[in-house]
Amino acid sequence: MAKSSKVIQSLLEKEMNVLRTTQVSALESTEGQANNNTFLGKRGKDFQFADVWPIAVDFLEFSAEEPQESQLSLLTSWLAKVA
């Protein structure tokens, strides 16, 4: 069963939270070493793609197995916008 773009976005945001927690813990265990890492998102808040402005992250529902004309036109217009 295919997942909607909102579900995929939510799953990716949760995974980014896990990665941030892991990275912070790793950095705390290596105190004293030079570090130029930038925190992704807003501190004290769960990760959301909306918080990485000015980088725009878009999600589009599309099926390569059964592409519909409306999906294909959305995809091509998005590609034209970002290219």
Automatic annotation (TrEMBL):
Pfam families reported in the protein's UniProt record: SRPRB
Localization: Endoplasmic reticulum membrane
The entry's keywords: Endoplasmic reticulum, GTP-binding, Membrane, Nucleotide-binding, Receptor, Transmembrane, Transmembrane helix
Topology in the lipid bilayer: Single-pass membrane protein
Domain of life: Eukaryota
Organism: Amblyomma americanum
Family membership noted in the UniProt record: Belongs to the SRP receptor beta subunit family.
Name the record gives this protein: Signal recognition particle receptor subunit beta
